[in-house]
Amino acid sequence: QVQLVESGGGLVQAGGSLRLSCVASGRIFSISAMGWYRQAPGNQRELVAHIIQGYSTNYADSVRGRFTISRDNAKNTVYLQMNSLKPEDTAVYYCDADLRPSRNHGQFHYWGQGTQVTVSS
């Protein structure tokens, strides 16, 4: 069974920084892409950042220039470095991954359980 486990969330003052981590474990042959979404109360879940195997990344306009997504492929881990945090960044942050369980399987999509990020003024 594949699991995605996030960590690193918490409470921080505006202007501060946090680094989120997400580790994928279980039956994994390869991971083609990993990313971060967030959902604030009353809002729909939105894409924050996405990274594809190799070098390609994309970011939501609201976080571009402040957040950086990266991967450690050997550890099946994706990170989200969040700098210059704003109260508007407060949300539950979810890790996601597109991966193949084995050489003989196609890709499947998985979600983590989420981690709370709260930014105070």
Features:
single chain, 121 residues, mainly beta, 7-stranded mixed β-sheet, 4-stranded antiparallel β-sheet, 11 strands, elongated
Characterise this structure.
The protein has 121 residues and is an all-beta fold. 0% of the residues lie in helices and 57% in strands. The chain is built from no helices and eleven strands. The protein has strands at residues 3-7, 10-13, 18-25, 30-39, 46-52, 57-59, 67-72, 77-82, 91-100, 108-111, 115-120. Strands 2, 4, 5, 6, 9, 10 and 11 form a seven-stranded mixed β-sheet that branches. The termini are far apart.
How would you classify the helix and strand content by structural class?
mainly beta
DSSP strand count: 11
Order of helices and strands: EEEEEEEEEEE
Number of H/I helices:
0
Q: Which sheet architecture does the biggest sheet show?
A: 7 strands, mixed
Rg for CA atoms: 14 Å
β-strand amount = over 45%
Task: Give a nutshell description of this structure.
By secondary structure, the protein is mostly beta strands.
SSE inventory with pairings:
Layout: E1 3-7, E2 10-13, E3 18-25, E4 30-39, E5 46-52, E6 57-59, E7 67-72, E8 77-82, E9 91-100, E10 108-111, E11 115-120
Parallel strand pairs: 2-11
Antiparallel strand pairs: 1-3, 3-8, 4-5, 4-9, 5-6, 7-8, 9-10, 9-11
